[in-house]
Design goal:
Elements (H helix, E strand, L loop, with lengths): L13 H28 L9 H6 L13 H5 L22 H9 L8 H7 L17 H13 L2 H5 L1 H35 L8 H10 L1 H34 L11 H29 L1 H6 L1 H22 L7 E5 L2 E2 L11 E4 L2 E4 L1 H6 L12 H5 L2 E5 L51 H8 L8 H4 L7 H30 L2 H4 L12 H5 L4 H32 L19 H17 L2 H29 L26 H11 L13 E5 L11 H10 L5 E8 L2 H21 L5 E7 L2 H11 L9 E5 L11 H15 L3 E6 L15 E6 L6 H9 L9 E8 L5 H15 L4 E6 L7 H20 L3 H22 L4 H8 L9 H6 L4 H13 L4 H21 L4 E5 L10 H11 L6 E5 L11
Parallel strand pairs: 6-7, 6-9, 7-8, 9-10, 11-12, 11-14, 12-13, 14-15
Antiparallel strand pairs: 1-2, 1-5, 3-4, 10-15
Family: Belongs to the SLC12A transporter family. K/Cl co-transporter subfamily.
Membrane topology: Multi-pass membrane protein
Catalytic activity: K(+)(in) + chloride(in) = K(+)(out) + chloride(out)
């Protein structure tokens, strides 16, 4: 402790000067005695609280409401946590981290979605309904549902025809294009799904919340219509299997005319399709749980059918199945109506015409019969329909064979006379004009269904992990199955059979069934049930999707479809879905419905990829997907330039519609700069820090105030503005400059905070520097302006960033190769502390730094559980950080704390009452500073006995005769005030707050003394301005010993969310 020597002045007042020293010593001794006495009375009383603290204030009644109404304290309010006393005034709006984490730990996915979940969090505990924790993992919750939805009717009914028509090479390309399209979409969807907690509601919620209501509503409708038409396609596929392959005799409409037979078949499809649709709607209406229960059975049918195809392909290599195909020349004949593949047959040793003869000749007699010219000149032969894997037939099937409608399916390598002949219905004919694009449109629905996993997000234990892994694995699995089947079909099945869509050449068998083992019926029955199941799933999902769109109220006339019956089933939405599906069934052709379905899903997938691309290009702060393999690392510039005035006006008017959603919140900065006498910026590193925080995105306004009269200082304002703009250009700060000339500095700053910006493009965060040297300043306006600015930002609900030791912050050319950004999360005030280090790490200067997040556990907190909850919270926020919970149990208020508080109050009283001259004030400030430094060194880690010895050192002050003579007139009054000053005892509320500052500072310095940057909650200023100077001292103590500090104060609203 510093020594000050007292030289006696021979005067009547010398006794008073001597008594000052004695009273000072007795005062310190009395404090120590009181501390020891409190420990002896109650060892469990770790701090001087309650009646003990009242003893300290006897005879010294100060305003208790400088920070908090004292009545609350006496009633034992829980806010009075001794270790967090600095933050207790705002605990109602800025709760302790432990209470926030406790709420986060109880998170469960709700069926409604993010908005309803956020509303449900505000329901009181007594009214909350018990929720079932989702337990489904990746395999059962995502992988298998995606398999079931991707594998479908096209695989069994049309893939062989696609291979036969396009050839193996082009069919492989068609499948690969479609699979790549869905894979890229799944990658984008995975990025969106891992960008926060995925609420129940699935794909529509992900897309709509990422793109906004306009695009979200359009995509939702596309997705809904696609799902509805998918139901129609599955029903048509099921009816085709039923009427063509299972019970052909069940057809209601028949025709002997070959040209009218296809029309009759369409009518059968319409009638049976409508009946199937009504039956399925009734099943869905009665109970969705029955559909979900049979989902596993339907999936098993699909898997068994696929395995039967592979088994049949392997068996065909050594024992191909016998399915002969009758050929007339090189033309394929239908075997539905012929009894033998020959022009004649022998009955009772007599050669008689076969049925085939009767189809091509006008008489059943050999003589006098007029036959088709092509029939006469070509022989009837039989070829193997399934030559097998080892036959080498793949060489014939490599190339495409696109044909117009009505053409005869021919085998190019077979011998044939060059005779035209007439068209006969016993040939196998092409029923639709084919092309590459048509085949793409027909096949594409077979790769849709990739969103089945995200639709079950509410049932997943960890949706962020399960959706990407399960969906991508399902796409890889199905892509392998499709591509391998393309090769197997081309290698095992004859080309004319592949091009035979309905299996007419193989006695009406399902073409893919002819390859399967042990029987074609495995494929027929399996595909029928799986197709029915897929139709039920579509009719279950589509109404719920429409209900979600209607509840969002994006399209007003759909509002009626948001209602549901008592059990939650969307009845009206189901009826509309059935009506739209009926339109698809009336088309009655699988080949015509499939391209419609493809268009809807392609539009939906386009917007999914667009949502991911926009988020990536805009680099919104909330865009932090855990799945990072969604784009190439390429820099394409910093945005579209040169927007016209009308576009800017439109955008500004749109911003006026309301505040941004939490997901889109980013700090829009107002940087307050201080200018020196030469109009140069005092702390240019403040702009450097702003550029690192913004990375060229969002709004930055640089503001400053010139004190004076606008008419007289207009030129200076222009010069200062140019200086700031040049500095902004040098620091690569993209923004605007705003200078205000005001009579008072505090008023100018207040005007900047209130009026900067245009319309909805206003700042939401104020950045300023710490007033260095405020203790030594002869003018108290410096720190009063600082506190006034803090109060104005709080009143305006703006966030505040205060950079302490800004000159030590790195420049844009410095890059940290390692180090930590430490976040000390004491209270939750909107999540700014979580967002800022993430934004800083986007800049090259901080990119290689690691984030460490510390939070404080009190005596009543479970620190182990807090650490788990904090890690879970950060996982949902997609922020990678090391987590540590620091335990701060109640401890004795040290003598150092009392002494520090006492000196703080003494200094405040000295400056307020004694009105020292400049010289004396400088000397007193230096005295307090030196004593603080020495006391800090001697007190931390010392025992009470050692501290007591330190306090017993004698304090002397030097007085000269000249000084005495100059102050003789005010001596009596000054000495009286000085005696009161030395007799004062510290206010207990200030002691508690100083205790918080000291304890937190010790912990922070211990953990973060080597950190590159420390981010810390900034306590709010006192409600009573009388405590302003003490508030500055508390902040000074809180941040002592730290090189770079950023004090953060939220604006009162959430700026970060776990939701996607």
């Amino acid at each position: 402790m510093p020594h000050f020597t007292v030289t006696k002045v021979e005067d009547l007042e010398e006794g008073a000067a001597a008594s000052v020293s004695k009273e000072r010593e007795s005062s310190l001794a009395e404090i120590k005695a009181l501390i020891q006495h409190s420990d002896e009375l109650d060892p469990s009383q770790n701090s001087i609280t309650g009646e003990h603290s009242q003893l300290l204030d006897d005879g010294h009644k100060k305003a208790r409401n400088a920070y908090l109404n004292n009545s609350n304290y006496e009633e034992g309010d829980e806010y009075f946590d001794k270790n967090l006393a600095l933050f207790e005034e705002e605990m109602d709006t800025r709760p302790k981290v432990s209470s926030l984490l406790n709420r986060m730990a109880n998170y469960t996915n709700l069926t409604q979605g993010a908005k309803e979940h956020e509303e449900a969090e505000n329901i009181t505990e007594g009214k909350k309904k018990p929720t079932k924790t989702p337990q489904m993992g990746t395999f059962m919750g995502v992988y298998l549902p995606c398999l079931q939805n991707i594998f479908g009717v096209i695989l069994f009914l049309r893939l062989t025809w696609v291979v036969g028509t396009a050839g193996v090479l082009q069919a492989f390309a068609i499948v690969l294009i479609c699979c790549c399209c869905t894979m890229l979409t799944a990658i984008s969807m995975s990025a969106i799904a891992t960008n926060g907690v995925v609420p129940a509601g699935g794909s529509y919620f992900m897309i709509s919340r990422a793109l906004g209501p306009e695009f979200g509503g359009a995509v939702g409708l596309c997705f809904y219509l696609g799902t509805t038409f998918a139901a129609a396609m599955y029903i048509l596929g099921a009816i085709e299997i039923f009427l063509v392959y299972i019970v052909p005799r069940a057809a209601i409409f028949r025709s002997d005319d070959a040209l009218k037979e296809s029309a009759a078949m369409l009518n059968n499809m319409r009638v049976y399709g409508t009946a199937f649709l009504v039956l399925m709607v009734l099943v869905v209406f009665i109970g969705v749980r029955y559909v979900n229960k049979f989902a596993s059975l339907f999936l098993a049918c699909v898997i068994v059918s696929i395995l039967a195809i592979y088994a049949g392909a392997i068996k065909s290599s050594f024992a191909p199945p016998h399915f002969p195909v009758c050929m007339l020349g090189n033309r394929t004949l239908s075997s539905r109506h012929i009894d033998i593949c020959s022009k004649t047959k022998e009955i009772n040793n007599m050669t008689v015409p076969s049925k085939l003869w009767g189809f091509f000749c006008n008489s059943s007699q050999f003589f006098n019969a007029t036959c088709d010219e092509y029939f006469i000149h070509n022989n009837v032969t039989s070829i193997q329909g399934i030559p097998g894997l080892a036959s080498g037939v793949i060489t014939e099937n490599l190339w495409s064979n696109y044909l117009p409608k009505g053409e005869i399916i021919e085998k190019p390598s077979a011998k044939s006379s060059d005779v035209l002949g007439s068209l006969n219905h016993e040939y196998v004919l092409v029923d639709i004009t084919t092309s590459f694009t048509l085949l793409v449109g027909i096949f594409f629905p077979s790769v849709t269904g990739i969103m089945a996993g995200s639709n079950r997000s509410g049932d997943l234990k960890d949706a962020q992990k399960s959706i990407p892994i399960g969906t991508i694995l399902a796409i890889l699995t199905t892509s392998f199955v499709y591509l391998s089947n393309v090769v197997l079909f081309g290698a095992c099945i004859e080309g004319v059979v592949l091009r035979d869509k309905f299996g007419d050449a193989v006695k009406g068998n399902l073409v893919v069934g002819t390859l399967s083992w042990p029987s074609p019926w495995v494929i027929v029955i399996g595909s029928f049930f799986s197709t029915c199941g897929a139709g039920l799933q579509s009719l279950t999902g589509a109404p719920r999707l429409l209900q979600a769109i209607a509840k969002d109220n994006i399209i007003p006339f759909l509002r009626v479809f948001g209602h549901s019956k008592a059990n939650g089933e969307p009845t009206w939405a189901l009826l509309l879905t059935a009506a739209i599906a009926e339109l698809g069934i009336l088309i009655a052709s699988l080949d015509l419905v499939a391209p419609i379905l493809s268009m809807f899903f392609l539009m939906c997938y386009l917007f999914v990829n667009l949502a991911c691309a926009l988020q990536t290009l805009l680099r919104t702060p909330n865009w932090r997907p855990r799945f990072r393999y969604y784009h190439a690392e390429k820099e394409w510039g910093d945005g579209i330039r040169g927007l016209s005035l009308s576009a800017a006006r439109f955008a500004l008017l749109r911003l006026e519609e309301g505040p941004p959603h939490t997901k889109n919140w980013r700090p829009q900065l107002l940087v307050l700069l201080k200018l020196d006498e030469d109009l140069h910026v005092k702390h240019p590193r403040l702009l450097t820090f702003a550029s690192q925080l913004k990375a060229g995105k969002g709004l930055t306004i640089v503001g400053s105030v010139i004190v004076g009269n606008f008419l007289e200082n207009y030129g200076e304002a222009l010069a200062a503005e140019q200086t700031i703009k040049h500095l902004m250009e040098a620091e690569k700060v993209k923004g605007f400059c705003q200078l205000v000339v005001a009579a008072k500095l505090r008023e100018g700053i207040s005007h900047l905070i209130q009026s900067c910006g245009l319309g909805g493009m206003k700042h939401n965060t104020v950045v300023m520097g710490w007033p260095n040297g405020w203790r030594q300043s002869e003018d108290a306006r410096a720190w009063k302006t600082f506190i006034g600015t803090v109060r104005v930002t709080t009143a305006a609900h703006l966030a505040l960033l205060v950079a302490k030791n800004i000159s030590f912050f790195p420049s844009n050319v410095e890059q940290f190769s390692e180090g930590n950004i430490d976040v000390w999360w004491i209270v939750h005030d909107g999540g700014m502390l979580m967002l800022l280090p993430f934004l800083l790490k986007q800049h090259k200067v901080w990119r290689k730094c690691s984030i460490r997040i510390f939070t404080v556990a009190q005596l009543e907190d479970n620190s182990i559980q807090m650490k788990k909850d904090l890690a879970t919270f950060l996982y949902h926020l997609r922020i990678e950080a090391e987590v540590e919970v620091v335990e701060m149990h109640d401890s004795d208020i040290s003598a150092y704390t009392y002494e520090r508080t006492l000196m703080m109050e003494q200094r405040s009283q000295m400056l307020r009452h004694m009105r020292l001259s400049k010289t004396e004030r400088d000397r007193e400030a230096q005295l307090v500073k030196d004593r603080n430094s020495m006391l800090r060194l001697t007190s931390i880690g010392s025992d009470e006995d050692e501290e007591t010895e330190t306090y017993q050192e004698k304090v002397h002050m030097t007085w000269t005769k000249d000084k005495y003579m100059a102050s003789r007139g005010q001596k009596a009054k000054s000495m009286e005030g000085f005696q009161d000053l030395l007799n004062m005892r510290p206010d207990h509320s200030n002691v508690r707050r100083m205790h918080t500052a000291v304890k937190l500072n010790e912990v922070i310095v211990n953990k973060s003394h080597e950190a590159k940057l420390v981010l810390l909650n900034m306590p709010g200023p006192p409600r009573n301005p009388e405590g302003d100077e003490n508030y500055m001292e508390f902040l000074e103590v809180l941040t002592e010993g730290l090189e770079r500090v950023l004090l953060v104060r939220g604006g009162g609203s959430e700026v970060i969310t776990i939701y996607s």
